[in-house]
Amino acid sequence: MAVEWRNFEPVLIPKIPNLHKIEVFEKNGGYQQLAKVLKEWTPEKVVDEVKAANIRGRGGAGFNAGLKWSFMPKPDGKPRYIAANGDESEPGTFKDRQIFEYNPHLFIEGATIAGFAMHIDAVYVYIRGEYKDWIDMMQKAIDDAYAKGYLGKNIMGSGYDMDMYVHSGAGAYICGEESSLMESLEGKRGYPRVKPPFPAQKGLWGRPTTINNIETLANVPLVIKNGADWYKSIGAENHPGPVLYGISGHINKPGVYEYPTGMSIHDLIYEVCGGMRGGKKIKAVIPGGSSTPPLRGDQLEGVCMDADSLRTAGSMMGTAGMIIMDEDTDIVDVVWRISHFYHHESCGQCTPCRDGTGFLEKTLIKIKDGHGEMRDLDLLLDLCTQMEGRTICALADAAAWPVRYAVTRFREDFEKKVKNTVYALA
Amino acid sequence: MKENYEFSKEDLAEIEKIKAKYPDKKSPVMPVLWLAQQKFGHVEPEVQQLVAKTLDIPAAHVYGVVSFYTQYYGERKGKFVFDVCTTLTCQLCGGYDILHHLEDKLGIKAGETTEDGMFSIQSVECLGACGYAPMMQITNGVYCNHLTTEKVDKIVDDLKAGKMPEFEQIPFPQHQDESNNKEG
Ligand SMILES: Cc1cc2nc3c(=O)[nH]c(=O)nc-3n(C[C@H](O)[C@H](O)[C@H](O)COP(=O)(O)O)c2cc1C
Ligand code: SF4
Ligand code: FES
């Protein structure tokens, strides 16, 4: 059932002018949760509260953040790290940058609380290189937080030390994948690592590391302030909290909107985003970034933006980067462009991914240009089967899913473009 | 013509600060490459050598990094590089029209540079501005959103006159007063 959202006031990016400035943030209760935790809480209590709140990772996989934190081994006196993932390169996703721009200190506070909870020595904030302007905003916020004693040595007089550094990417989608991100932070080509060992055992520079998305960490102070029960009362039952929906495509008012999870896709399109451009019908919706399976416009009745509802509908929440397409959209063209993206971004370590993404793209070009045959549709599905679950990282799956579900859900669009495989003899 | 690439004293001080953020000597290579590219406009092999020497790491490693990441200019590009996004949402919202308009206007194709060395065009993947499509980025810097052919023309003219477009702040929709997302 769709959740109530109309009276919701944003909490991740609340309507407070100049909140990105540290004085304004402080005046509005900023860094008080950090103060409270440092003074009164134990690290275990923080982990337990965040686990109970069930903040599901906003980077794509939707894993309970507190549970992930609890995988960190006991401190042994040597360095431990957080890598905060602001690579934000999944097509359709443009929400973490809103935090850098409008509420960077909420993230810094959340990451520092996470640091205290896991006995972290340093947080590396990995931001895609294209976000030069937002990297500068984040760096300024971090400098200000250092100057006020919220970062660095003896934070707020607690005896806890933690550093925070920004690391700029340089144009590689794959570096959003957590192990590739760590390679990149270590100054290497961003080749994903074979797992296990998992980052909590052997992460950055061989030391225990937790990777969380920027938005995930920005939720932490809200949980500390209001408690896990409050957090769980927002949005969908098994996937609670406020979420930044990035909505783009053929709608009247695209943009990033903060609402509870579990909103119906129809409400988001028709009430939040002002409906479809030109009053057109919806052909397809990609709910959570380009790798999540597309849904048909006539499949959307009652579908809500949370893990359970989307799973039932046959897709995923991903990054909540929704792409809306109207009835005039050429699905084959769109799927080709998605395939081109993954082909371009494959790091090339695994044959099923390197060659598979290439074959997918080649076959889709053939179909799009009118040279395809009916059997090419089966070839596409077969290629997907050979890619899924057979590679070092999930990029191959991310490349296969949109193709698989487009071919099955929009089969008539593909069939219209291909010739029959069997020719009648003249 | 072979140029001599050197870091200044200020650069070296900056590099020391960068090195202090990482626990080993290989890790600072990305920020130092950024610094070098900012200074020299590219990171061609001679600059890679300089970075390698400065960090005391193999030049082959630096080359490996430069060739993996698309934003490092391992070869010289135009003074202004138009990175036009043509991925999914930009594709849906006319990104290819913008690309083709720029190509016609400058008389070059994506991947090429004008003869006078002023402009390069590249067709790039999603830049994380999908709600503001179609869009492009100029030389790893400013984002130009909500593009139309007229807006593109103006940007090109401004750049020729030495004027870089300014950062466009896009308001968070729920912060705007006439937000009609609420009941009543
Ligand atoms: C190919 C690929 C690209 C990814 N890109 C991103 C990204 O840009 N940002 C992000 O936060 N997570 C990305 N992820 C997910 C990360 O690997 C990781 O699960 C996430 O950052 C964990 O944070 P969370 O638990 O807070 O979501 C990507 C995963 C894959 C397989
Ligand atoms: S699945 Fe693709 S992107 Fe991931 S490691 Fe293998 S080749 Fe690289
Ligand atoms: S698709 Fe162009 S910015 Fe995302």
What does this entry show, briefly?
The complex is a heterodimer of chains A (426) and B (184). By secondary structure, chain A is an alpha/beta fold.
Commentary on this structure:
The complex is a heterodimer of chains A (426) and B (184). Chain A is α/β, with parallel strands linked by helices and 426 residues long. Chain A is globular. Chain A has 3 domains: 31-231, NADH-ubiquinone oxidoreductase 51kDa subunit (Rossmann fold), CATH 3.40.50.11540; 237-326, Ubiquitin-like (UB roll); 331-418, NADH-ubiquinone oxidoreductase 51kDa subunit, iron-sulphur binding domain (de novo design (two linked rop proteins)). In chain A, strand 7 and strand 8 form a beta hairpin. Chain A contains 18 helices and 11 strands. In chain A, 57% of the residues are buried. Chain B has 184 residues and is α+β, with helices and mostly antiparallel strands. Chain B has 2 domains: 9-68, Arc Repressor Mutant, subunit A (Orthogonal Bundle); 80-160, 3-Layer(aba) Sandwich (Glutaredoxin). Chain B has helices at residues 9-19, 29-40, 45-55, 59-68, 88-92, 95-106, 149-160; strands at 80-85, 119-124, 136-138, 143-144. In chain B, strand 3 and strand 4 form a beta hairpin. The interface between A and B is large, with 67 and 53 residues. The structure holds flavin mononucleotide, iron/sulfur cluster and FE2/S2 (inorganic) cluster. Flavin mononucleotide binds at residues 57-61, 63, 65, 85, 87-90, 174, 176-178, 211-213, 216, 393-395, 398 of chain A.
Structural class of chain B: alpha+beta
Provide the structure class of chain A.
alpha/beta
How many helices of chain A does DSSP assign? 18
Task: Note the run of SSEs of chain B as H and E.
Answer: HHHHEHHEEEH
* Uncertain residue segments of chain B: 179-184
Q: Note the gap between the termini of chain B.
A: 70 Å
Give the ligands present.
Answer: flavin mononucleotide, iron/sulfur cluster, FE2/S2 (inorganic) cluster
Name of the CATH first level of the largest domain in chain A: Alpha Beta
CATH topology heading of the largest domain in chain A:
Rossmann fold
Count of helical stretches of chain B? 7
N→C terminal distance of chain A: 58 Å
**What's the average pLDDT of chain A?**
97
Q: How many domains of chain B?
A: 2
Quaternary structure annotation: heterodimer
Shape of chain B: globular
User: What's the Cα radius of gyration of chain B?
Assistant: 20 Å
Q: What portion of the residues of chain A fall into strands of 2 or more residues?
A: 5-15%
CATH homologous superfamily heading of the largest domain in chain B: Glutaredoxin
